[in-house]
Amino acid sequence: MTPTHPDGALAPAVHALHDAVAALCAPQPHQHRPGRILWLDPRYQQLSDAMNGQSISGHGHTRAASLIPAQIDCLELKLRIDVRTAAISAQWRVSAKLDTPSRLQALAEQSWRPQDAHQLEQIATEIRSWVKAIDDLFAARIIYLPDRCPQCDHSHAYRWQNDGQHVRTPALIITADWVAACQQCHATWPPLFLARRLGYTVEGISA
Description:
Elements lengths: L9 H16 L2 E6 L2 E5 L2 H8 L16 H25 L8 H9 L8 H22 L4 E3 L10 E5 L5 E5 L1 E3 L5 E3 L5 E2 L1 H8 L9
Antiparallel strand pairs: 1-2, 3-6, 4-5, 6-7, 7-8
Helix pairs in contact: 1-4, 1-5, 2-3, 3-4, 3-5
């Protein structure tokens, strides 16, 4: 077995920290179409904006009531990030007058010693967990409908989960790609078409 240096590998640890901070605090590239890249707001900024009532894809589309739990989720996550950033930056003597993104960016630009490598890896891992939490919070989610399928008349379907459990779920869903489908007979429809067929009011809902 090759012995490891007790101080760790400093360069990879610093690189990991820079990447993690950028993933949270820097504008994010998004391929709008082939050959064109759009730059989205930093994840931390998106989290802050969502607390003020901006759209949160993971919590529905047009239902105003769904924004309330979504905003609570955003507030809890932002507070966790802010509190942990304050604690970490204080340990490394980063100015307490800076906001959270500035503190993390200042932290990443510090001069580090080889013996700091392990702690840098831990910090980078924690920041990446915040990035994943934001992505999970904003991820489009499946919407389940309580109605019977107009095609097969089933109200529920059964499916296997990754852990091997056989679970019962409503048959009709609207997928993260905004497609209405029946999990029992696998029929699909445009969401607005299915909504009208089921008798839902569709005013103010965009396709």
